[in-house]
Amino acid sequence: MKNATVFYGTLLSSRRGSTLTITKDSHVILSLHDVVGVTTQSMTCAEPGSQVVFMRVLRTNKRNRYFFIDFDDNQSNIREVHRDLNDLSAVLNWLLPAGYSHRQGDIGIYARQHLPLDRREIPNERQSTEFAGLMNRRHRFDCMQDCKFFRKDNRYFVQVLCRAHMVHPEHPSIALNPGLYELRGAKGRVVGRTVAVRSGKPPFVEL
Amino acid sequence: MIGRFLHAHPGFSFDVEEFVLSTKYVSDLQRRYVAFLHEMTGEPSDWSGGRLILDEVQRGACDWVPAYQGYKYTRDFSEWPFTDKSAVRSCPEEYLAVNLSRTDLFLKTTTGSSGPPVPIWHTAPFYFDGLLLTLRKIAFFWGAKEAPTRPIFCISLSDDRAKQQFIAADPVKEVGIYVRAIVDEQRLETYDHVLALINELEPACISSKPSILESLVERAVLKPQFSLRPLDFIVSSGAKLEAGLQVRLEETFGTRAIEAYGMTEFGVVGYPCRQGALHVDMTSTFIEVIDSEGKVLPDGQLGELVVSSLSNRAMPFLRYKTGDLGALETANCACGSLAPRLMKLSGRIIRCLQLPSGRFFPPTYFNDLFVRFPCLKEFQITQIARNTLEILLEPQSGTTVPNNELVDQVHLYVRDSLGEPMSVHVRVVTFRKDCKFERFRTNF
């Protein structure tokens, strides 16, 4: 049985015997028992300081769990991926289909020529709500008035009329030239999106 | 001091972790306090037209708040649409700044005085300001003399039985300990306990909402064995303090009863002065008064109060319709402060129910109906006779709980809570949206 501690940005992977614990910003987001081995494969990305890691947690009775971690100096994310994947390049191809023109964290941006026929135009004031399932309200467009948004079922499109930026508090912003784009979210399941929340005490002056 | 208190009063807790965290924000709290003193007692900044807030928004203060995306490009404060409470209630996340980690925030909920509770996230500086600075600001602005010298600064009373009794310490060490005590209408001995605490601890002030203060006065009068050392002041907030109760409080406790105005979304925004006026905290809020069509009214005219504030960067609100009625007066006050005054506050009047025995019963006791019956969208309790209550319920749309089941359960809970035989009539309705809603009323 091994003991090991590894940092991936703000994520901490800590193995004590047969238990693997992953914490983020000091909150435990994953705890796995019956661990018999952990293997990792990493790669440095084009963005300075950015790395991705494929972590395979091997457990007894083949109850293996596989994870994809991307991190840089400012942020870390961990996502559970399919157990049939063999290596990092297979994971990257599985997460987001090839062909994206830009990527911002877990969102791929694909240039498109046409909108689907029966798409629905989303008013700008409804965009953040309608796109919340994909963009989690943290990816957003800086100049909403320069964009039009469309949706067809679970497909999301943006028509950029003037040069616009897609921004995120942790990732570098992406400049998009005028054109039509489809936005696609990465596959897999985010681990640790639900974190502990501190409850505030009632004030000493009633409100 | 804290150790001694906890040893003598085992029913109270002290959150060491939170206290340590608060010490990290000492300089922030001091800065806020100094800014408050400057704006409220000195030469204030130009407050007109919401200019201070407009400038901040144009500099990007709301860039990460989905509901306010694009506001930075507007040139005039009045171009912003009003923020409606129902919109916040239906999707609070739209108003939450997405660039902040939720682990760094404090989650609170509105009191539910004007509808089902809404989650409100506070940044740490805003949270500690509300918890540990607000009462100090009230004491200073009002001119309390003894507040800083007493070991116990405040005993605050709540009837929220879901919460625990606790104490807190001022990280800046300018005032004594804060004590939060819980009272329960079904256990009148809890009021006796509070009166005993006041006797023993001799705090600078007590603080609560009017309905609880009314019950406290009633109990204090019935228990003449309590010989209370005069408090420095009494703070009433959370609902309108009516003149009759104010007089009874002052006679019973031998000190001045003053009123503050605020809400969970903004903290306290109206601070009382010696002249009995409520001055707007200009460091954190901008207030407009509008008519029923949304037109901004001039000084002195009664309308709905609309508040804007960036003080809580986690969940700032712009042009937020409070549902409270009042007027704004910018002419100078005799107290010397140049901060505008809130006048004619007429929303949120909550009168105690009067039980057949004559005992007062704060109706806010029943705010927990929302917690007990999650299928409830709104309710209204009206005392229509000394021994009769009428309760109207509006269930959430799409609820699977049958109406008759809900009516029966609410009837049972309310009847048993009152502790005295009363007729309780419960029925299901749909409330109109176009009128000012009063959850608790007396019609007799």
Summarize the structure.
The complex is a heterodimer of chains A (about 210) and B (about 450). By secondary structure, chain A is mainly β. Chain A has helices at about 90-95, 125-130, 130-135, and strands spanning about 5-10, 10-15, 20-25, 25-30, 35-45, 50-60, 65-70, 75-80, 100-105, 105-110, 120, 140, 145-150, 155-160, 165, 175, 180-185, 190, 200.
Biggest sheet statistics of chain B: 7 strands, mixed
The total number of structural domains of chain B is 2
Strand order within the widest beta sheet of chain B: 1-5-6-4-7-8-9
Largest sheet of chain A: 6 strands, antiparallel
Strand order of the largest sheet of chain A: 9-10-17-14-13-11
Rg for CA atoms of chain A: 20 Å
Q: In percent terms, what proportion of residues of chain A is strand?
A: over 45%
| Number of distinct beta strands of chain A | 19
Quick one: overall form of chain A? globular
Distance between the termini of chain A: 55 Å
Distance between the termini of chain B: 49 Å
Q: So, the CATH homologous superfamily of the largest domain in chain B?
A: ANL, N-terminal domain
The best one-word shape of chain B is globular
Integer average pLDDT of chain B: 89
SSE order of chain A, one letter for each helix or strand: EEEEEEEEHEEEHHEEEEEEEE
Based on secondary structure, the structural category of chain B is: alpha/beta
**pLDDT < 50 stretches of chain A:** none
Count the DSSP helices of chain B. 11
Give the number of DSSP strands of chain B. 22
